[in-house]
């Protein structure tokens, strides 16, 4: 009994039984000429295939919804009543087999989500009391050491504390090339070790891993409705009752019940209803496979309309790992070590990339920068004021020096200008009211920044604009390498917001790409907010309109291109559905289209719509050619350095502090 129940729940069981009964009925009717038996078999076939349709229609009516199933159910029951047994059996059989095919192909469009679920790790090998213990991945405790051997899946999010190896992170970032990992690097659950042996300290387990958050986000996104889909749902809500009324009126006027029932069948808006969601599911699924998380159908539609992209500089166009290139000493009583040492002590309380560059430089020269300042006061738009070891240190721009009445700044301003012209980000250092020197920091332009700008233009973006708090000299140096259309430099966070809203007022649909809190107002105001390198950020995964899981800049134009292709597919599907219904209606009214032919064409149109949407699951050829594109040597600017000035010259990612010495 259980076997029969299991078999009958299979999506192909109902059409298989119904089809067999129809074949048997045709044999008996055509060969044995036993009409009553043949007709009974046809009715049986209609009952087998139509029972589920009637139940679904009844449930929908109970919920006060007139759906497609009701049209088919009424048509089939009416056909049986008037003795059109073949039509009743054929319509319900075709509808059942069409439903099975739809389910199968729709499942295919959700393959990306299924693949993400499939890569979720089941087991983990942990070190407990010095012994290797195999436990379920969900049973790993935060802080435990997990062993990842060659060929194994990483079971947790964590930090490498020992060993080295290469991980395939395609399930997270969409990148096909394995990423080398060593002590201090982050790893993600669901990635696969391709070589080496890693010891990992667990920092995220179970539902608190990046993979789990991605799966959750993709599930929500694929179920979220686009504006066009909402409209189509509203349209079908009145369209279906209209078809029902039209069929009744046609039957009463013509006294032709078969015509009325045929109108019910061919008026089913199946392809129209499914045209939007199947495209969205496929588009978002394709994006997820490529390491691009799109928040939902509405954002997918908006992304297809993007005409302007505003990009932050640090961490977007540049690598975001600046290094100290110059230490200019301006106080004869001090040495290079003094200037760098006091700067390092002042920066120990900051996590800004510039601060890290100064600390790394000081430590590499053996300077003592241990401990924390007694006080750190950020001065928005100007710099920071720090008290450390009984001394007061100012690091920032001329405006900061003017605010604190620092005199004799001409030499500092000149040195800062020269550094900026060479592609550095300059910071003036003041010790106890006297200018000590100027530190120059440089950051490398990303190897694929110029390709990203070119690809954005190819994807239909009209304007690529760089928004930065850095000096105009440094900003234009980056622009000359990357090819951005416009540069807005020396911007405060509120200035970036004003630029974004100004572009929108000019009619642009704006995407803003940033990775710092200082970009938050502009990101929130933009039509689409894009987060780079979101794999390690739970907040970015959950809140960004588009989250690029890796640091590959080419994913941004890829996301926009995919959005445009998805929306085009939606439009094609709508056209296919409307043309099919129109042609069938004309065919019925003019004669020649029967109930069976109408259902056959209807189901064919549904499958065509689904197959058309499934084309989105294929990776686009242009992006396949660009996969793995890189340059051996990233572009370098400035006669003395490798890179260009860092965005927000001293803009702390957490406090919006601006420190450019030439601002």
TrEMBL record:
Subcellular location: Cell membrane
The keyword Lipoprotein appears for this protein: no
Topological type in the membrane: Multi-pass membrane protein
GO terms for cellular component: plasma membrane
Region (Disordered): 621-641
SUPFAM superfamilies for the chain: Calcium ATPase, transduction domain A, Calcium ATPase, transmembrane domain M, HAD-like
Residues covered by the P-type ATPase A domain: 120-219
Main location: membrane
InterPro entries on file: ATPase_P-typ_cyto_dom_N, ATPase_P-typ_P_site, ATPase_P-typ_TM_dom_sf, ATPase_P-typ_transduc_dom_A_sf, ATPase_P-type_domA, Cation_Transport_ATPase_IB, HAD-like_sf, HAD_sf
UniProt feature coiled coil, ranges: none
MF GO annotations: ATP binding; ATP hydrolysis activity; ATPase-coupled monoatomic cation transmembrane transporter activity; cadmium ion transmembrane transporter activity; metal ion binding
Organism domain of life: Bacteria
Bilayer-spanning residue ranges: 12-29, 36-55, 61-82, 235-253, 259-285, 574-593, 599-617
Keyword Zinc: no
Matching PROSITE patterns: ATPASE_E1_E2
Keywords: ATP-binding, Cell membrane, Membrane, Metal-binding, Nucleotide-binding, Translocase, Transmembrane, Transmembrane helix
Homology family: Belongs to the cation transport ATPase (P-type) (TC 3.A.3) family. Type IB subfamily.
Protein name according to UniProt: Cation-translocating P-type ATPase
Species name: Cryobacterium zhongshanensis
Organism ancestry: Bacteria, Bacillati, Actinomycetota, Actinomycetes, Micrococcales
